[in-house]
Amino acid sequence: MAPKITTLLFDCDNTLVLSESLAFEACAELANEILASRDIPDRYTGPQLLSEFVGQNFRGMMVSLKAKYKYEMGDAELETYVTREEDAVIAKLKEKLQPCVGADAELEKLAKQGKYHLAVVSSSALRRVQASIEKVGQDKYFAREHVFSAATSLEKPTSKPDPAIYIHALKVLGKTPEECVAVEDSKSGATAAFRAKIKTIGYTGSYEPEEEEKMTKVLTDAGCVVVMKDWTEFDASLAKIESGEV
């Protein structure tokens, strides 16, 4: 018999809100500044950065860029850029952010049912996640202490695919992996949930139509037990997990 599902854990960026393209615009400007300061000729656009580092937070991106281009960056300089990135991204989000199509209706329905505990589990900085869900009015569905950030909530900041933020969320919520379901849109996020032994619904609705088929395979390979391309499919996807079908 399948364990009773009590808790739903939602990724934020491009799962609940359409934030990634806005955020990566700001990230690209800072990444290019860093590369220029090291006399590295390469430059990124927002979409290029998104394609290469989707699902990672800015701190994780900076680690990846350092490894790729083999330059040094001390902790103090990194923290300065992390703060600047947060400020720049939040400004863009407050100006332009929209919810993912259908996410609001699903959250409202879940809140009315009152059947599940709802939480957000994100790689992004806590300030950014809070600003995002507040901008689109989703904050009313999540208790402030149930919004978790791999960049902020942990003693040692990290980023998905490290499962640490999911493990931390389970501990704070007092839940086991078996009674939770996660919803993720990226390989890194799905991998993090899988490593935390949480059954995961993949979501491809924030991708362009020509990318959906590829991302369905990416998310399945990363451990998602079912993949939906629209929030209207959430009930049926969750039912498959609750029935033990997947």
UniProtKB/TrEMBL annotation:
Keywords: Magnesium, Metal-binding. It comes from the Eukaryota. GO terms for molecular function: metal ion binding; phosphatase activity. InterPro entries: Beta-PGM-like, HAD-like_sf, HAD-SF_hydro_IA, HAD_sf, PGP-like_dom2. Its cofactor is Mg(2+). NCBIfam families: HAD-SF-IA-v3. This is HAD-like protein. It comes from Hyaloscypha variabilis (strain UAMH 11265 / GT02V1 / F) (Meliniomyces variabilis).
